[in-house]
Design goal:
Layout (H helix, E strand, L loop, with lengths): L9 E9 L19 E8 L22 H19 L9 H10 L10 E5 L6 H10 L3 E7 L3 H7 L5 H14 L4 E7 L6 H14 L3 E6 L7 H7 L8 H17 L3 E4 L2 E3 L6 H7 L3 E5 L4 E5 L8 E6 L3 H11 L3 E6 L2 H12 L6 E2 H7 L5 H5 L4 H7 L3 E4 L2 E4 L1 H5 L1 H20 L7 H6 L6
Parallel strand pairs: 2-9, 3-4, 4-5, 5-6
Antiparallel strand pairs: 1-2, 1-3, 6-8, 7-8, 10-11, 11-12, 13-15, 14-15
Helix pairs in contact: 1-2, 1-10, 3-5, 6-8, 11-16
Length: 442
């Protein structure tokens, strides 16, 4: 999606120290130790684009003009408010992007070298603009190339050409060496296996040390989905999509890339620290229209993790920020089960999986072995070669990572069943049931 006036779709700062402690929000078990150290990431959403791409259903808006100063002021105020509520500390820098980073500096401190990622597009990443972002404190760039074929880019409704994409990536690599990522889409209507293999080879000649690959999702309400539904464009068959994914894993692996998350590949240790904070179910604060967050409100005396969603419509969001300091549309305390469900769903996306230590932060009373080591769905998945449970934790095998979506329902069901039983031990069966061997459902 094209970022208006050179702005990013997202600004992300990786974890900073929380002076109030509290960890990730423990469950089930006692309240977090408020003296313990903790971390949080910060996510900032810029809601405006020059145009909407044919496949995009993100929370973006195309308007004739943007009052950038007003939006900037609201981003700064909301960042200050939410950082104060969570008691997180971060970094300071100069410029428009820097205004938000300076707001963070009022309450926060990031370690030296902490990741500050900007998501941008080739159409808004000239060398001078990128240099300005670097001066503002950005030290990592993720570029939405999406395809290295001009016909595919036109179908996707992208503004840039392949030549412009190459120029943008080369400029970014010069300014952010070793810290430039490329986003690519596969499974496009009409895309063949051979064409995808060619795109991968072209990407390897262009890329730095990080690549994100996403299977195109035909979202309801988008122009591209309507074209496929109407028969104007062919929908790719599932077996072709699986072949494309396998091809990517093989090609990138042979080029030295570690497949460290379902959609992400890195070499030379160039993993995305910010995104890892999501997959590890760490705290993060969402700022801007439609942004999501997961954190503990220590300033209000809280010890439970909340799920928060900011008001999506920019004008309404700005009114709320101006009147109350933030534009939170909804907030809900996550139950112990909900936190473990998120940890399981996100953690298994990575090749490291869910470590014993991380699980223990959320579930000090029930270990991974207690939940997934006994007879049940998880043991069957281990025996079939999809899953591993050992002293290191719970993780997918190479084969299992490719079919994670099909594994999760069974694992979530086992988690819900075991956790429910642990919280509500079965009553002793009446004498007549014991005598008759009557079975009861959990």
């Amino acid at each position: 999606m094209a970022a208006a006036r050179g702005w990013p779709r997202r600004l992300a700062a990786a974890a900073g120290a929380l002076p109030g402690g509290g960890g990730p929000g423990r469950a089930p078990g006692p309240a977090p130790d408020t003296a313990a150290p903790a971390t949080a990431a910060l996510y900032v959403h810029w809601p405006y684009c020059r145009k909407r791409c044919s496949y995009c259903n993100f929370n973006t808006y195309v308007v004739p003009a943007v009052d950038e100063a007003a939006v900037r002021a609201c981003l700064v105020r909301e960042a200050q408010t939410l950082l104060r509520l969570s008691q997180v500390h971060s970094l300071a820098s100069p410029g428009t992007v820097a205004a938000v980073l300076e707001a963070v500096a009022g309450a926060a401190h990031l370690p030296a070298g902490a990741e500050v990622t900007l998501e941008a597009n080739p159409s808004s990443t000239s060398a001078s603009v990128l240099d300005g972002f670097r001066a503002a404190g950005v030290n990592r760039l993720s570029i939405g190339v999406q395809s290295l074929d001009d016909a595919e880019l036109r179908m996707l409704g992208r503004e840039h050409t392949v030549a412009e994409a190459r120029k943008a990536v080369e400029a970014a690599r010069g300014l952010f060496p070793g810290r430039t990522s490329i986003d690519l889409l596969f499974g496009l209507p009409g895309q063949s296996r051979d064409a995808w293999a060619q795109r991968l080879e072209a990407t390897l000649r262009l890329c730095d040390d990080h690549i994100s690959l996403y299977q195109l999702t035909l979202e309801r309400g988008t122009a591209l989905a309507a074209q496929v539904r109407a028969g104007a464009l062919p929908a790719p068959p599932q077996d072709l999509l699986a072949d494309m994914y396998h091809t990517a894993r093989s090609v990138l692996g042979a080029a030295g890339f570690r497949h460290y998350e379902v959609s992400n590949f890195a070499r030379k240790g160039a993993l995305s620290t910010h995104n890892l904070s999501y997959w590890r179910a760490e705290q993060y604060i969402g700022v801007g229209p439609g942004a999501h967050g997961r954190f503990v409100l220590r300033a209000e005396g809280g010890c439970s993790r909340e799920a928060r969603v900011q008001t999506p419509e920019p004008v309404a969001w700005m009114r709320e920020v101006q009147s109350q300091g933030h534009g939170t549309r909804s907030r809900a305390v996550l139950s112990p089960l909900e936190q473990l469900e998120e940890l399981l769903t996100l953690g298994l996306r990575t090749d490291e999986g869910i470590t014993q230590e991380r699980w223990g932060h959320f579930s000090p009373q029930l270990s991974l072995q207690a939940v997934f080591g006994g007879p049940g769905e998880a043991r069957a998945l281990q025996q079939e070669g999809w899953l591993v449970l050992d002293g290191g934790g719970l993780r997918c095998t190479w084969a299992g990572l490719a079919v994670l979506d099909s594994l999760l329902p069974a694992l979530l069901w086992q988690l819900q069943r075991v956790l429910g039983t642990a919280r509500h031990p079965p009553r002793e069966a009446p004498a007549e049931e014991r005598a008759g061997g009557g079975a009861r459902g959990l």
